[in-house]
Design brief:
Keywords: Signal. This protein has about 60 residues and is mostly helical. It is built from two helices and no strands. The relative contact order is 0.06.
Length: about 60
Amino acid sequence: MNPVARWLFAAALVASTAACVTINIYFPAAAAEKAADRIIDEVWQLREGAGSAPVTPPAAGDAK
């Protein structure tokens, strides 16, 4: 095996090994829900502070 082929084989082996690595990140559901609630509260406070009228969703029976 010539040196170039050996180098290519080693590079392919390293690349395929690196491609098989999986990183699992765990996000606790309770913490994610609290963060979402906090963001929603901040958005509503910004909207109320801007002086705009509150947006109310249409009733279930209303059609456009």
